[in-house]
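Below is a filled-in request sheet from our internal design queue. Each sheet records the structural input a requester submitted and the sequence that came back. We keep these sheets so that new team members can see what a complete request looks like end to end.

REQUESTER: design group, bay 2
PRIORITY: normal
MODE: inverse folding
CHAIN LENGTH: 246
BACKBONE (tokenized):
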């Protein structure tokens, strides 16, 4: 188990100072992997570099992606962070509960985790929230306003505390544990489901309502393995082939 199995993903961060402060918060807890999705701020801005302080090298090495899909494609557990209520039923975690889930997940050394943070003013869009397995919500008093770096610091601390205090006996490394499906595999599975549901007229693409978000939520909560995803995709392929031959 390694802290390098965890990636922090910042989406459309607008202020260079927030980029730098967020990087410093990650580095304080020993994390080094940072990904930026369509950043509005320049990671090479002097303000960002100054706020990052001794962690400027992490900011310099941060990968930049055009989409959240691309940023988390190599991860098989993806948490969103949010503050606002949402109409779709999603599994919600406190930072401490989420750290337990991450710890269990990383017992397979091939598994990777992403923690996703949205734009400062708006947070993650519903479409981006739907791409994640669960949502981390930080409990606060009635005054619930946290800036980006504060939220990252709290979550990074809980992750560091759990991962650094677990004994070798507790961790039980195992390459034999079933590997969880990667985000890209789940994305492809949902596309296959959508295609089959449209073909069979179960889903009207002109009036989709909330069927696909609910389906995503269902399967994300299932924490599926690679083999389980392959089985479902095989089943969907058989349906498409049957429909073609009718």
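RETURNED SEQUENCE:
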């Amino acid at each position: 188990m390694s802290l390098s199995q965890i990636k922090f993903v910042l989406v459309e961060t607008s202020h260079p100072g927030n980029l730098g402060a967020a990087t410093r918060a990650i580095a304080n807890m020993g994390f080094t992997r940072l990904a930026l999705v369509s950043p509005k701020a320049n990671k090479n801005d002097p303000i960002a570099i100054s706020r990052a302080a001794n962690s400027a090298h992490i900011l310099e090495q941060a990968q930049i992606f055009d989409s959240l899909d691309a940023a988390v494609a190599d991860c098989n557990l993806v948490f969103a962070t949010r503050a606002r209520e949402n109409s779709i039923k999603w599994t919600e975690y406190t930072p401490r509960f989420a750290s337990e889930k991450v710890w269990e997940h990383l017992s397979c050394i091939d598994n990777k985790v992403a923690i996703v943070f949205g734009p400062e003013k708006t947070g993650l869009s519903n479409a981006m929230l739907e791409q994640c397995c669960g949502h981390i919500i930080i409990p606060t008093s009635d005054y619930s306003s946290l800036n980006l770096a504060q939220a990252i610091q709290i979550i990074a601390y809980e992750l560091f505390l759990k991962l650094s205090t677990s004994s070798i006996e507790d961790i039980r490394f195992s390459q034999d544990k079933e590997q969880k499906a990667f985000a890209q595999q789940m994305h492809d599975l949902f596309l296959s489901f959508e295609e089959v549901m449209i073909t069979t007229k179960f889903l009207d693409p002109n009036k989709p309502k909330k069927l696909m978000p609910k389906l995503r939520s269902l399967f994300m909560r299932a924490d599926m393995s690679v083999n389980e995803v392959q089985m479902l995709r095989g089943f969907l392929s058989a349906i498409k082939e049957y429909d073609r031959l009718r």
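SHEET NOTES:
- The chain has a mean pLDDT of 85.
- The first strand starts at residue 6 and ends at 11.
FILED BY: M.R.
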